[in-house]
TrEMBL record:
The chain crosses the membrane at residues 12-34, 54-77, 89-108, 144-170, 182-201. The keyword Secreted does not apply. Residues 292-580 form the Sulfatase N-terminal domain. This is Phosphoglycerol transferase. It is found in: Cell membrane. Its main location: membrane. Keywords: Cell membrane, Membrane, Transferase, Transmembrane, Transmembrane helix. CDD domains: LTA_synthase. It is a multi-pass membrane protein. One of its GO terms (molecular function) is transferase activity.
């Protein structure tokens, strides 16, 4: 253990410890003097300790990040912390400045929490828009002089501590350390730092290690409890990646009358940017003896162009084809934006995920959304995913938004991981079915099963019951018909096989006949050529959004073929209508069995993502395509011989109608991120919703 005698290593470790103790002390100050937990908010001891444990791991991560720059100064050749007084002085200056900034952020965070009930985030920058008023308010509301003295005094104390550590650990005589010991010590320190930065030591899938994220602090679902688990420096950084001006309020108001018509809002509900409408029990409701169960199966990366029911050759999906034939088959079904996290967000919230960067689920300011699923009276709610639910911070959205959710993820399953995405889909279906069939018959449930196998690296697990890989088709044949290679083709076949096996297991259970099964693809992945699909899919860029969708309940529903354009955001309202649930709808999805006020039913799509997205409004026969600001707009006939031709001048009414719907959907979706979020009035003002 001679490596422990390294002067530089011991100094760096001591600096990490000093920062960690400081951060823990500041966390204790927040808990004792600012948190509502224990006063107006109660929490179980288990939830409290779990959340505080998350917070301590965040503190350790920040302490490590603060000291990492010193590693460069410590191991420079010849001139470094151990040999140069200048380098030691530079390190002292850095440590003092870092402490000054960190303590200041904590002070601002404490004040922000007292004033607005939220940890410090990017929305605080709005106070800089009127510096004079904000400064006067702070001066009149807080003991600024004493706070400043405390800030500088604490910084001076930490600076003194770092100076003492430097004198005692860096200036002492050097001791010779064997090379073998140094290498061993370096490896040990590297491993410890990796685990410290990762923030977890268990349930790690090393093919896809998901680090500790802000969403882990929200496991309890209570905002006040979650505040105890956040680190304000790291949280401020996370939210700094967000747009400080997330929507155009003038544009939202301009398109509100049109969107109110689109949503068929009653006249008495058309208030100032009000989108809420109450949907009564529908006459088309099913009439079973007891409330139907709902099982949603997300088909990873499965586009319509790879499903036999949509015309794909080589029989890749016989089980899904039978489901399409015996259930409700949606010919023109579109996800608003491609990507797994964006589709899950749209399905659950009813809002297209038009976030320009990353995904809406990564935005902690909007992670608690109103959802129809919470209005399913008496239903147990379960979410099953073979991998880590923290990916894209989906766990934060799920646990904060869905009341009483039972979340099953990586680490909860008996089966072992087969690749980066966790357990195999077949094992996921088997274990999920085992959980569902244990639920009493008189207890309705809503279950979401998220598959992942039809995704790179297209793993074919060794245990697949009697599934057989098909290798009789050439790569040329497959590439000419929408499959990149045989691995991808067999991954689609395996997904379909697993769906078939799940249907067999469900039929043998007691819940099959009283369950509505909902299947949808989250997006299509990059394809080659699609001779079997209508030409507009390729030339207009809709193939990534066009995915399979079937609603299957052979004991409850007659087969039906729906040709109208339907969006992913319409699924939950449609299912709620089927089960006879009355509900409040606060977002943009609509029950497809209710008339569409716009005539030809329309779906919104984002055709190109990024800071300057291209958007569109698509019906069963037309697509309006335009930039988000309305520039470069065109209208296209989908089934014409020349779908890429602009028809806007030939059909001006259709063009104007779809153009405005696309713009209205885009602007309204950005606004609804925040309007549909559940926050108190202080938080709404912080985000600008309640600003005069």
């Amino acid at each position: 253990m001679g490596w422990l005698q390294s002067r530089r290593l011991r100094f760096l470790a001591a600096c990490v410890a000093a920062f960690f103790v400081l951060l823990v002390a500041l966390r204790a100050v927040f808990y004792l003097f600012f948190s509502e937990v224990g006063e107006t908010v109660t929490a179980s001891s288990g939830a409290l300790w779990q959340t505080l444990g998350v917070g301590l791991r965040f503190d350790l991560r920040l302490a490590l990040l603060l000291v990492l720059p010193l590693c460069v100064l410590a191991w420079l050749p010849r001139v470094n912390l151990a040999t140069s007084a200048f380098m030691r002085g530079l390190a002292q200056a850095y440590l003092t400045l870092a402490t000054l900034v960190v303590v200041l952020i904590y002070i601002l965070d404490f004040g922000h929490y007292v004033y607005l009930g939220d940890r410090l985030n990017v929305t605080a920058l709005r106070f800089l828009e009127d510096t004079a008023i904000s400064t006067q308010m702070v001066w009149e509301s807080y003991p600024v002089v004493w706070i400043t003295l405390g800030w500088l005094g604490l910084t001076a104390l930490m600076a003194w501590l770092f100076a003492v550590l430097g004198r005692r650990l860096l200036k002492r005589p050097a001791r010779r350390i064997r090379a073998r010991s140094l290498w061993a010590g370096g490896a040990i320190v590297f491993v410890l730092v990796v685990f410290g930065l990762l923030g977890r030591v268990t349930h790690i899938n090393w093919e896809n290690p998901v680090p500790l994220r802000w969403s882990d602090a929200f496991a309890s679902g209570d905002k006040a409890v979650a505040a105890l688990g956040l680190n304000p420096v790291l949280f401020l950084y996370d939210t700094s990646q967000l747009d400080a001006d997330p929507y155009d309020l003038d544009a939202v108001k301009r398109y509100y009358p049109m969107m109110a018509d689109f949503l068929d809002l009653p006249a008495e509900r058309r208030g100032e940017l009000n989108y809420e409408r109450h949907v009564a029990v529908q006459p088309h409701r099913l009439d079973p003896q007891r409330p139907p169960n709902i099982v949603v199966v997300m088909l990873e990366s499965l586009g319509a162009s790879r499903v036999g029911a949509y015309g794909t050759p080589f029989d890749p999906t016989p089980n899904l084809d039978r489901i399409a034939e015996d259930g409700w088959f949606f010919e023109h079904f579109y996800v608003p934006v491609t990507g797994t996290a964006k589709s899950i967000w749209a399905f659950l919230t009813g809002i297209p995920d038009v976030a320009p960067e990353e995904t809406a689920s990564r935005n902690p300011l909007i992670g608690h959304q109103r959802m129809i699923v919470n209005q399913l009276d008496g239903y147990r709610k379960l979410y099953m995913v073979g991998g880590n639910a923290g990916w894209a911070n989906l766990e934060g959205l799920l646990t904060r938004s869905i009341q009483g959710l039972e979340l099953y993820e990586e680490g909860d399953w008996k089966g072992g991981n087969v690749d980066v995405w966790g357990i195999s889909d077949l094992e996921l279906f088997k274990e999920s079915n085992a959980i569902l069939e244990q639920i009493p018959e008189d207890q309705p449930f809503f279950a979401f099963i998220q598959t992942a196998g039809n995704h790179r690296p297209f793993t074919i697990p060794p245990n697949n019951d009697d599934f057989q890989v098909r290798d009789d088709l050439s790569e040329e044949e497959l590439r000419a018909n929408g499959f990149r290679n045989a691995a991808q083709y067999n991954a689609v076949r395996l997904l379909d096989y697993n769906v078939g096996r799940y249907m067999e297991m469900a039929r043998e259970s007691g819940y099959f006949d009283n369950t509505i099964f909902v299947f949808f693809g989250d997006h299509n992945n990059r394809i080659t050529t699609l001779p079997h699909m209508p030409r507009f899919q390729e030339v207009l860029g809709l193939e990534s959004h066009h995915v399979p969708h079937m609603i299957y309940a052979p004991a409850l529903l007659e087969p039906r073929h729906i040709r109208e354009a339907v969006s992913l955001i319409d699924v939950m309202p449609t299912v709620a209508g089927l089960i006879g649930q009355d509900y409040d709808n606060t977002t943009l999805g609509r029950d497809i069995q209710q008339p569409a006020p716009e005539g030809d039913r329309t779906a919104f799509v984002v055709l190109r993502e990024g800071p300057a997205p291209q958007i569109g409004a698509v019906t069963a026969d037309h697509l309006a395509r335009l930039n988000h600001d309305g520039e470069a707009a065109s209208l296209h006939e989908l089934y014409s011989d020349n779908p890429e031709q602009d028809r806007s001048e030939e059909q001006p009414e259709t063009y104007e109608h779809l153009f405005n719907l696309a713009r209205g959907f885009y602007e309204t979706s950005r606004y609804l991120f925040y309007d549909n979020a559940i926050r108190d009035e202080h938080a709404r003002q912080a985000a600008g919703d309640g600003a005069d």
